[in-house]
Design a protein that fits this description.
With 185 residues, the chain is mainly α. Helices cover 72% and strands 0% of the residues. Helix 1 crosses helix 2, helix 1 packs across helix 4 and helix 6 packs across helix 8. InterPro entries: Homeodomain-like_sf, HTH_TetR.
């Protein structure tokens, strides 16, 4: 990918988080980036092409962030150690794992756009599958691992949709309270 294309996509995520999908207008993005509309059309096939690229970009970043965070925990690690490391990564100004404004904007957009809904569905399933893999070694079944994976995931979603959203420090504190419940073997 080119640097300019990445700038368009990264700025689009910022605008989506700040203004929702209605803010994703070519002229406004161009002005924010100090780039021409011609640059936009060089990199994207119109607004629909940009939307698809933006969604793919967000999906790629989100999945990569979680998978990388889990993989970077020193192995062999207990389930609690993995969740403790994930908890440490939730902090202000680190939008890799917790970006409530963007999560809310994407979920709102998904309520009326089937393409966005498909991306949101894949994101939810992929994130849950990653958490389920962490749990699987300490529970008896895939179903139990999925149920256990739902608890932190649903807390995260709830933290984003409460008005105003729970900040990163508060969410980290909530997860720290849950860590003693995670098996340490």
């Amino acid at each position: 990918m080119s640097a300019a294309r990445d700038r368009w996509l990264d700025e689009g995520l910022k605008v989506l988080a700040e203004e929702g999908s209605a803010g994703l207008r070519i002229d406004r993005l161009a002005a924010r980036l100090n780039l021409s509309k011609g640059s936009f059309h060089h990199h994207f096939d119109g607004a629909e092409g940009y939307k698809k690229a933006l969604l793919a970009h967000f999906e790629r970043l989100s999945i990569h962030a979680l998978e990388t965070a889990i993989a970077e925990v020193e192995q062999p690690a207990s389930t609690r150690a993995v969740f403790a490391e994930l908890t440490k990564l939730i902090r202000p100004n680190n939008t890799d794992l917790y970006y409530p404004q963007l999560d809310v904007a994407l979920r709102a957009w998904a309520t009326w756009d089937p393409d966005v809904r498909a991306v949101q569905s894949r994101l939810d399933e992929t994130r849950l599958a990653a958490l389920q893999r962490v749990w699987r070694s300490v529970v008896d079944s895939d179903e139990e691992a999925r149920t256990n994976a739902l608890l932190p995931y649903l807390i995260s979603i709830g933290a984003t949709v409460i008005v105003p959203p729970i900040d990163a420090d508060q969410l980290r504190e909530i997860y720290e309270k849950l860590l003693p419940l995670v098996p340490d073997h």
